[in-house]
Amino acid sequence: MRIGLLGTGPWAEMAYAPALSAHTELDFAGVWGRRPEAAKELADRHGGLPVYEDVDALFADVDAVAVALPPSVQAPLAVRAARAGCHLLLDKPLATDVAEGRAVVEAVERAGMASVVFFTARFQTAIEAWITEQADAGGWFTGRAEWLGSLFDGDSDSPFAASPWRREKGALWDVGPHALSVLLPVLGDVEEVTAVRGAKDTVHLVLAHTGGASSTVTLSLSAPPAASGATAEFRGRAGVNVLPSSDEGGVVPALVRAGDALLAAARGGRPHPCDAAFGLRVTEVLAAAEGQLAP
After folding, report:
1. Which of 157, 235, 256, 278 has the fewest CB atoms in 10 Å of its CB?
2. DSSP assignment of 116-131, as one string?
3. In the chain, pLDDT over 90 holds for what percent of residues?
4. Where are the beta strands (DSSP E) in 105-212?
């Protein structure tokens, strides 16, 4: 499968380009970026790949695209790519606007394209196995997820600290998708969401799920470094089960597995659990929470 990369920022450089280069069944065929000079630098680091100034020309030359762009840029380009006959490897969140996310899903369905949204934990082997085990066990009456980062701590040297969309949207949209990607497969869809603000960009959610369970979520990108970390747990008839830790060599191996998932969906025609439709549902839940936080 020939695949092109859209995006040239830190996430494309650190995760997507290395994963596409490492994948044995994906032919990394070219790069497009909003900054042509950055696209050339990235392409040169991965074997002198072709650089496309016209994104539609890239769509015409490949079977699939991977997108490492802000959500407001990702969604419209994903629609164009699907209409051009490209399968989609997308990043979370699919979109921060429900209408834009729905347009992606509709374009994918009408064109018959496969889609996978990269929720990191869902492509880490140990964590995905744990999620499947909890979903099969059932009997959970409550859950909890905390995703606390220190990206906006004054001492952070992360290349993502200056990300305009993260500065605008905060933890709700950056790490909220990770928390929901763990809770929803186990507890079911969300029927009702209540959201309140905490310190700085911290957000607290209470979720009512379709099966009668409830969960709480705490999200922040401004936690003190000593308080940062991610965890989730479920409580029910089986007792208490806590999210296992999983590094597995970092994000690149997980993204390689997301590539595997896209190939399987494209070949077999069976949607992946983390497809664009799931990405849209996450967007809908987060948008409902954001609506309650508006000043």
Report:
1. 157
2. EEE-GGGGSHHHHHHH
3. 93
4. 115-118, 140-148, 190-197, 203-209
- Phi/psi of residue 206, each to 5°? -120, 125
- CA dist 50 to 2, 6, 86, 138, Å? 13, 12, 18, 49
> Phi/psi at 290 (nearest 5 deg)?
-60, -35
Beta bridge mates, 263? none
Beta-strand pair 140-148/214-220:
parallel
Q: Is this structure's pTM higher than 0.70? A: yes
Cα separation of 243 and 147, whole Å?
12
3-class state of residue 65 by DSSP: strand
Alpha-carbon gap, residue 153 to 146, rounded angstroms: 17
42 touches 19 (CB < 8 A) = no
107 and 82 in contact (C-beta within 8 Å)? yes
pLDDT tens per residue across span 66-75:
999 999 999 9
Pairing of β 64-67 and β 51-52: unpaired
Locate tokens 């374009």: which residue? 107
What integer pLDDT is reported at residue 247 of this predicted model?
65
Q: At 79, list the tokens.
A: 């629609």
The residues facing 89 across adjacent strands are 66, 116
